[in-house]
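Predict the structure of 2-methylisocitrate lyase-like PEP mutase family enzyme.
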Amino acid sequence: MTSQIDKAKAFHALHVKGDPVVLYNIWDPGSAAIVAKAGAKAIATGSWPVAAAFGFADGEKIPLDLVLYNIRRIVAATDLPVTMDLEGGYGVEPEAVAATVTRALAEGVIGFNFEDQIVGGSGLHDIAVQVKRIAAAADAVKASGIPAFINARTDIFLKAKPDEHSDALVDAAIERAEAYAKAGAHGFFAPGLGNEALIGKLCKAVSLPVNIIALAHVPPKAKLAELGVGRISYGPVPYRQMAEWLEAKARAAFE
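Done. Here is the predicted structure for 2-methylisocitrate lyase-like PEP mutase family enzyme.
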């Protein structure tokens, strides 16, 4: 069985600008096995589908103990690298974030998403605040001895409608990306961004591999690769499509 350290190193190597790794987000051991069988190079959870699968709303409503139990079972179900969505780290203070990261790494994950929106509140954490939180996560990663991949997410583009996305928002995202990289992040996650020109601008300006979610308004994989994207994920899309299929089949059975 491949060691956690080797899995982490392999996961880092998958992030190449212009040749993006594709992560088709899952929510439990069963969905992980299906996606692995389909040819995945790594497994990634999404906070929304994990919460929904257990009957919770997104936004750290699902207890952390349950999230960690679930990820432990997912890691045990596959020999692929597993990265998880840690939302805001289940705590505002850097010490709380570090504790959450330490617990997650102990379950076998080799990476995690970490967002800058104020969970349960409104808006984003100030850059100075988020930098301290990312630095705490990076320190916890270093202390663990596992070279885990920190995917620093900004919610700038989710807080605005796609037709409101602009160069000014991208400039703000670039500022955050540079600060997050200095704090120890390995990737920059910009969910919601779909405009080709703006994606290209972001990828060109940011040293970190950029992660884009394949939402309906986002260009296809080939175009994202051309624009310099280093990671493509699917977020809640697979779960929602599965839920629609299941409901349709159930309705047909009940007719």
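The radius of gyration is 17 Å.
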